From TrEMBL:
<keyword id="KW-0809">Transit peptide</keyword>
<feature type="domain" description="Plastid lipid-associated protein/fibrillin conserved">
    <location>
        <begin position="39"/>
        <end position="204"/>
    </location>
</feature>
<dbReference type="GO" id="GO:0009535">
    <property type="term" value="C:chloroplast thylakoid membrane"/>
</dbReference>
<keyword id="KW-0934">Plastid</keyword>
<dbReference type="InterPro" id="IPR006843">
    <property type="entry name" value="PAP/fibrillin_dom"/>
</dbReference>
<dbReference type="InterPro" id="IPR039633">
    <property type="entry name" value="PAP"/>
</dbReference>
<dbReference type="Pfam" id="PF04755">
    <property type="entry name" value="PAP_fibrillin"/>
</dbReference>
<comment type="similarity">
    <text>Belongs to the PAP/fibrillin family.</text>
</comment>
<protein>
    <recommendedName>
        <fullName>Plastid lipid-associated protein/fibrillin conserved domain-containing protein</fullName>
    </recommendedName>
</protein>
Length: 213
């Protein structure tokens, strides 16, 4: 195997004392919310920067709690945003996750004489498709195909349809398995933050390339 894996009415009138008080309340603008989001995003990216895509976090409950708290803060800032439109369509590359299956493959790939390369989510909202991909440079790849449906402003439902393990000159089809949903709780031009049906978290960045089968 090692070699083969080579988103006019009257105005209201308030007593002057109330209007005077209201005038001193802080104003919340879109720009201030954006500033808060960017600051929270930077904090989150700093927290995960040395976590080896989540491998180190598995053994550090305190670090995990800090990261989840940071994710929840970022999600609260983006709770009214739409993250399931066309901006969701992209090749997304893994930065950090709590998904045990992905982390297991990343960690144990060496046992098969290879290593895990980029771990990707390839989403096309218009085509209602999602591929979960783990690459094994230079030629190996394991990917799971899914059909997706937008369920709300932040939720997408998915159903796995098939899986393939592919080497340089060979391919093994695997049976489809599972269905569920994920919420994209934050999305911008650079990253996407997700929480899924199992309570797992995923932080991905827009990859500098597009992956295709």
């Amino acid at each position: 195997m090692a070699k083969s894996l080579s988103l006019p009415s009257l105005p209201f009138i308030f007593p002057s004392s109330i209007t005077s008080h209201l005038s001193h309340l802080p104003k919340i603008s879109c720009s201030s919310i954006s500033f808060q989001s960017q600051s929270a995003k930077r904090q989150l990216l700093t927290l995960i920067s040395d976590q080896q895509r989540g491998l180190k976090t598995q053994k550090n409950p305190q670090k995990l709690a800090s990261i989840v708290k940071s994710i929840d803060h970022l999600a609260s800032l983006g709770r009214n945003s739409v993250t399931t439109d066309d901006s969701l369509s992209a090749t997304w590359r893994l930065l950090w996750t709590t998904e045990k299956e992905q982390l297991f493959i990343i960690e144990k790939a060496h046992l098969f004489g290879t290593r895990a390369g980029d771990v990707l989510q390839v989403i096309d909202v218009e085509k209602k498709s999602l591929n979960n991909v783990i690459t094994f440079p230079p030629d190996g790849v394991f990917f799971v195909r899914s059909n997706i449906e937008v369920a709300s402003s932040q939720r997408v439902n998915f159903r796995f349809t098939s899986a393939v393990l592919r080497g340089k000159n060979w391919e093994i089809p695997l049976p489809p398995f599972g269905q569920g949903w994920f919420d994209t709780v934050y999305l911008d031009d650079e990253i996407r933050v997700v929480k899924d049906i199992r309570g797992d978290y995923l932080i991905v960045e827009r990859a500098p390339y597009s992956w295709t089968e």
